[in-house]
Amino acid sequence: MVNLDKTWEIMDITEKENYVKWHNYAYKDDLEAAELLVEKHPRNAIVLGYYSMHNISKKYLGDVFSIKIPKDDTHSMTLKALKEKIAKEATKRRVIELMKLAQKEYEIFSKPKPELLSMLLRYGKSERSTQSYYHSPQISKTDDSVGSKKAQDFLNNIVKPFIKIMKELDI
Is residue 129 predicted with pLDDT exceeding 70? Predict the structure, then answer.
């Protein structure tokens, strides 16, 4: 169960530097590993693709707002914090501006809306869950090409567009 009454912490300057550096490293490492795993381990590629999204979100929240997401319910809290912060008027304008710049590269931004960022993160979380738990349909070795295509599509159409915006988002 998600406790929506929980909140996040505000970090001091010394913790902030380490927190941001760690999440900057982690999102890049997760994305690189996801790309390497697409063919042989597509399920893990999807999981790591989502974690790349999750970690860049935490980097942004830490860097721009000094927010530290607690370990308890970290996925829901990250989504909640991101949604709240991109609802600010100046941030909305910046997100739309970045999405317009990314339209040629990513079709998903053909109709730029700030709430699309939190929707992408929520979708990524959902995909991660379907790949991480027993209830998901398991892909057999004979279905690897289907799994690989799904993983590649997830990385190209969800993860990378999300990361492109989050890397540039500075307010």
Answer: yes
Distance CA 105, CA 8 (A): 34
Q: For residue 2, what pLDDT is reported? A: 43
- Whether 142 is in a domain gets the answer no
Query: pTM of the entire structure?
Result: 0.90
* Sign of the torsion formed by the C-alpha atoms of 19, 25, 28 and 30: negative
Angstrom CA distances, 116 to 14, 70, 113, 122, 123, stand at 32, 24, 5, 10, 10
Residue 1, in any domain of the structure: no
For 10, the enclosing helix (H) or strand (E) is strand 9-10
Domain that holds residue 75: 9-136+148-168
Cβ neighbours, 10 Å, residue 16: 17
Taking 60 as the threshold, does the pLDDT of residue 137 lie above it?
no
